[in-house]
Amino acid sequence: METIPQPYFLPYRQHGEPEHRAGFAAVDFPWQELSSSEAELLHYLCLAAEEMNEMFCWQFCPDTSIILHFLDTISPYANEHEGESLSSYRHLLLLQNAPWSLQPRKNHLLEIEEGRVKALAEQAGSLDAFLQIRRYLFDLVPVPGRCSFYPPDLTDEELESLGSPAGEVNRVLFRGNDGGVDTIRNEQLFPEACGRAADYLRKARELSDNISFRLYLDAKITELETGSLEARRVADYLWIRHDSPIDIVISTALEVYLDAWKNNKGAACAAVTRIDTKSDRLIKDLLGLVPELEATAPWTWKRSEIDEHCLPRLKFVDVLLWSGDYVTGPMTVGAQSLPNDEWVGKNIGTVNMVYQNTGRAVHSLSGSILADQFLPREILDLVGTSLFEGGQLHSALHEIGHTTGLQDPDHQGEASIWLGGEYSTLEELRAELFGMWACEKAVSASVINRPLADAAHYAMLLTMLRSLAFVPDQAHTNARNIMFHYFEEKRAIVSTTEGRFRYDFALLHPAVEKLLAEVGDIKASGNLSAAKGLKERFCYDHPDRKLFEEKTRALPLGRGLIFPIVEVRDGEVSCRYDDFLHRLGEK
Fold first, then answer.
1. In angstroms, rounded to a whole number, what is the distance separating the alpha carbons of residues 360 and 318?
2. Which CA distances in Å does 380 have to 375, 448, 484?
C-alpha cells in the first residue's frame, strides 16, 4: 500500500496582486474495498474521463498546449533556478488547465526575466512559439468572456439570426471564410477524442454486471458519437435512473460558467466516482423533506404537484479522477446538481452530487485557518470541529435548491434565456440562500440537530468572508458578496472590535427568507432589470478588501488534487500515486 503524499505549496504571482500560493493535496480513495473487476471497470472509466481534457483546454484557451510544449522545449537549456520556475509555472498551468486563474480573472506570470526566456527560446529553436505565447507569461491578459465558444466579433443580432441550433449547449459558433457564421457540435469538432472515450466506455460496459449502468453507458456512447439533443436526454435519463455505486459523469458540454458572455455554452468535463454509503440515512431524510420544501418555499411560483419519480436524488460520492472543467483554479467543485438541462430536471429529475474525499483533501490544505482568523473564540468553540460536516450539509441542500421552483407562465424555458449574463450569479445566489433556509426546515423536522445547522451557517459565513478578498467578477463570488452586504445591511452579521464576525440569528433567518423570496421571483419572472438592480446594490468591491486579502493570505488560492491510480496486478488490487497533473498534460 502506497503512502498518501503530503500536501505541498507553490507560490505564484499575477499583475497587481499580492503573491499567492497554490496548494496540492492527494485524494484518498477507498481502493481496498474494490474487487478486481470493479478496479478494472474504474480503470477504463478513468481513461474515458481523461479524453475530455483536450477539449476543455481548447474551449478555455487553445494556446494552452502551445505554452505547455514551449515550457518543455526550453527546460533542458535552463539553469537550476530557472528550471524550478518553469516547473512551478507548468504545475500551475496544469492546475487550472489554462494560463488564467478564475479568481482573480488574470493570468499567472513566469518568474524569469523575459529577455532570458527569449534567449532560451532561441537556443531551443522555439522563437516563433515564444513570440506567439509570451504575452501570457509576462503581460496582463484578461480572461476572454467568450473563450472559444463564439467569434470575438459576433453580434447579438447575428446570434439571434442563427435560430435555435446556435443555442445548443454543445455547439460552437465560428466565422467561415465567407464571413458568415456557422455552428458545429463538440462531438464533430473533436471526433478522435470522443471516439476514444466511447471505445473506453465500451470496454467498461463489458466489465459491469449492473444492467442499468450498462444501458447508461450505451446511451452515453451514442451521445459522444452524435451529440444530438435526443441522445443527450436519453443519456441523462438513464444516468438519473441507474443504481450502480460506480459512476461516470462525462460530457463535452456541462456547466456554463466558462461562457461569461451568454451563460449558454457548456464546458467539457468528466468525473469518475463511487458512492460513499456512510451518509445513506441523512440522504433519505433530506430527500424526504423535498416536497415540503417545494410547498413552503418563500417565492411565488411553486411546484405544487411533484411526481415522486422526479424527486431529486442525493449522492455522497468519492472521486477517483476528474478532468476538464473540474480542473480549474482557484476553486474546487464541492457539489453539483446534474444534469443541467432544465427540461430534464423538471420532467425526469436530477442527481445532487456531494464530493466527499475531494472536499476532505481541500480541507487538509486550509484546515481551520479561516475560522481562526474570523470567528470569535466562543463561536469557534461551539462549531469549530463541525465546520467541514456543516459545509458538506449546506452543499447538499444548495444542490437540491438548484432543482426547485418554477418559471412563471410568461417566462417558460431556461431562465438563462431571459437573464443572460446575470443568470449564473442569480442562480448561485438562490441556491446558497436555499441551503441556509432549508437548514432551518431540517432542524424543525428533526432531520438534523441545531449545532450542525449552526455549523452549516457559519461555514457559509466563512465562505462569504473569503469572497470579500476578491473583486467580485465570478458567479459564486458575486453571490456570496451580495449575501454578505445584504445581511450586513439587515444587521444579521455583526462585526466585533477585534475584526471578527458572528451572526444575530434572530435577524439572520428572516433576512435569508426575504432575500430568497426576492431572488426566486426574479428568476421565475425572468426579470433582467431586477437582477441587475440587486447586483448593483449589493455586489461591490468591499471597502476593506485589502484587509480581507491580508487576513486570508495564508490560505492557498488554488487547490491541485492528486488522484491515485487504482490498478490490478495478478488479480490483486493496488493503488499508487502518480503525477496526475502530468497525466492531464499529456492529454
1. 10
2. 6, 20, 19
Phi, psi of 410 (to 5 degrees): -90, -5
Q: pLDDT digits over 541-585, tens only? A: 999 998 898 888 888 888 889 999 998 988 899 988 876 555 555
pTM of the model: 0.86
Interatomic CA distance for residues 422 and 425, integer angstroms: 6
**Rounded-to-integer distance, Cα 259 and Cα 266, Å:** 7
Beta strands in 240-360 (DSSP E): 246-251, 269-275, 313-324, 335-338, 351-355
Cell of 404: 426547485
Query: In which element (H, E) is residue 419 found?
Result: helix 415-419
Q: What is the DSSP string of 186-213?
A: HHHHSHHHHHHHHHHHHHHHHH---HHH
Decide if 368 contacts 433 (C-beta within 8 A): no
Confidence (pLDDT) at 587: 55
Q: What is the pLDDT of residues 66-124, one digit of tens each?
A: 999 999 999 999 999 999 999 999 989 988 899 999 888 899 999 999 999 999 999 99
Gap between the Cα atoms of 551 and 462, Å rounded:
12
DSSP string, 214-231: HHHHHHHHHHHHH--HHH
| Contact yes or no for 287/314 (Cβ under 8 A) | yes
Residue 350 near residue 402, CB atoms below 8 Å:
yes
